[in-house]
């Protein structure tokens, strides 16, 4: 897309892009988007709206996030981009030696062992305190109301809720899972589409977080309940771990891609993977989006970036290779030189030698927020603190038990993190927030959204509607069923192990809000693969 077209996107979508001037909130659930919009109309800014929507999403989409998860944010405020890392650390009692002594050879997915310190409540409080116009009690009020009065399940939400309930009946055996079943499978089954669900425990906890600015969660009565629950069932997390946590304001990292700056949160998040892939392709020209050469180069760049990411990304102070080295022009050129006509099996290079919910919010004053939070793997660990509605995350599963790996488990360390918010600027001005939730699909979705926008001139809705791919491992790549058949065949001829699927849920769920810097007009797109919604006025 040339600079003259930079903010005039051709219509090429199954749904209309949304335009507005005063404010916009894009989320995967209409009720959460409406909660954020209501806060804007009450005099809140984009940060207040994002916090309101985030809290509401813990109620209306518990299949992907919860109060006991982590969060990251990119905030554009007063012509400056700020980054917030609210991912929690491993408990002090959790170590490789402790797990080995207990006979654990791989960190489990479920139960209390993989539970790390939740950062989401602290993120809400920190964002509200630093940038918000309203009180935390005001911004969390819509979420409290939804939890207390209940809401009818949307179709895609009901699908994944039911799928989880069926799967967990086999995987989750033990007393520590009883509360999850009580809260999320009332009457012994998952609620269905259109059926009401509410949680008074969830409502009371949100009220307590709001009234104490999250202090109760980290040093008060909620922390006591979490500590007691963990001790009772052999978990490692303690109140002292919660007391030691504080969200970290970080400097966002970026690459220049064809006249734009693409921004991500620095490690321990995997946003670096998206930047490395884009850095490899920034000097390439692509004839068309639906072209097998375009797909091939995207996939090859992404797999090379992932090979490096899986080897090096962890909490930044523990990385053996620096972010600067991994994003250097020289290293990008070296990695780009490996991309040929045939599919390759990726290996990490050496630069020293050379589920989730995502939301976007914007207000009429130019403030914008890219926000993401997650429990990981759907409902997370399966452990819910009794009487609170707090579903705990299982991020510890991503740690390595190899002491020589950069991402090796250590007490107090933050693990490699999948959730990443994105942001786009041009010439120092905000274009807007974007993101694609969904495990290791996220940097792949970021790359595809940015290229859809910049290389192929798609508007936000068309960008999200377009067919997607996901590299899995080795030469294996999964294509969405809407990818043209001739492209699938051509990729297979190049040596890619191609699989087509109708399961669109595996390709992530995104939101985009772009702003025209000349007029201030906002244009938003929301995910067609879920119950997505853009609320605007």
UniProtKB/TrEMBL annotation:
Under the heading InterPro entries, the entry gives: GGT-like_enzyme, GGT_lsub, GGT_ssub_C, Ntn_hydrolases_N
Residue ranges for the region (Disordered) are 518-537
Q: What is this protein called?
A: Gamma-glutamyltransferase family protein
Organism of derivation: Bacillus daqingensis
């Amino acid at each position: 897309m040339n600079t003259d077209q930079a903010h005039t996107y051709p219509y090429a979508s199954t749904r209309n892009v949304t335009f507005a001037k005063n404010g916009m909130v894009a989320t995967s659930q209409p009720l959460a988007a409406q909660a954020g919009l209501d806060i804007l109309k009450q005099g809140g800014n984009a940060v207040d709206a994002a916090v309101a929507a985030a809290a509401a999403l813990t109620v209306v989409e518990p299949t992907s996030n919860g109060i006991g998860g982590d969060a990251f944010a990119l905030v554009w405020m007063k012509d400056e981009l700020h980054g917030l890392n609210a991912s929690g650390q491993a408990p002090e009692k959790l170590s490789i030696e402790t797990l080995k002594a207990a006979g654990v050879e791989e960190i489990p997915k479920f139960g209390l062992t993989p539970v790390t310190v939740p950062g989401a409540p602290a993120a809400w409080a920190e964002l509200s305190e630093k940038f918000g116009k309203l009180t935390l009690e005001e911004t969390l009020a819509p979420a409290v109301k939804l939890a207390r009065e209940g809401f009818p399940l949307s179709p895609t939400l009901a699908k994944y809720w039911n799928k989880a309930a069926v799967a967990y009946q086999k995987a989750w055996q033990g007393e520590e899972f009883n509360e999850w079943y009580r809260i999320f499978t009332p009457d012994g089954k998952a609620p269905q589409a259109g059926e009401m669900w509410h949680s008074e425990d969830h409502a009371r906890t949100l009220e307590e977080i709001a009234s104490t600015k999250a202090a109760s969660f980290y040093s008060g009565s909620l922390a006591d309940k979490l500590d007691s629950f963990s001790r009772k069932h052999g978990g490692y997390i303690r109140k002292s771990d919660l007391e030691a946590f504080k969200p970290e304001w970080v400097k966002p990292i970026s690459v220049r891609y064809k006249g734009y700056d693409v921004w991500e949160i620095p490690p321990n998040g995997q946003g670096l993977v998206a930047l490395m892939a884009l850095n490899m392709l920034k000097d390439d020209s692509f004839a068309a989006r639906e072209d097998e050469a375009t797909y091939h180069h995207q996939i090859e760049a992404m797999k090379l970036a992932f090979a490096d990411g899986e080897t090096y990304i962890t909490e930044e102070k523990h990385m053996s290779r620096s972010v600067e080295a991994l994003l250097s022009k020289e290293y990008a050129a070296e990695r780009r030189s490996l991309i040929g006509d045939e599919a390759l099996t990726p290996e990490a290079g050496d630069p020293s030698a050379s589920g989730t919910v995502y939301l976007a919010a914007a207000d009429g004053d130019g403030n914008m927020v890219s926000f993401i939070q997650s429990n990981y793997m759907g409902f997370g660990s399966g452990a819910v603190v009794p009487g609170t509605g707090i579903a705990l995350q299982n991020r510890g599963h991503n740690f390595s038990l190899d002491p020589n790996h950069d991402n090796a488990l250590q007490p107090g360390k933050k693990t490699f993190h999948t959730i990443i918010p994105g942001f786009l600027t041009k010439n120092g001005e905000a274009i807007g927030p974007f993101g694609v939730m969904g495990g290791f699909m996220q940097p792949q979705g970021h790359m595809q959204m940015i290229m859809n926008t910049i290389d192929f001139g798609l508007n936000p809705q068309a960008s999200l509607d377009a067919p997607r791919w996901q590299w899995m491992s080795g030469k294996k790549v999964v294509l969405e069923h809407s990818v043209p058949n001739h492209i699938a065949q051509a990729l297979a001829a190049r040596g890619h192990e191609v699989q087509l699927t109708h399961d669109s849920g595996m390709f992530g769920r995104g939101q985009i809000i772009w702003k025209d810097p000349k007029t201030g007009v906002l244009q938003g797109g929301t995910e067609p693969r879920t119950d997505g919604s853009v609320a605007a006025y």
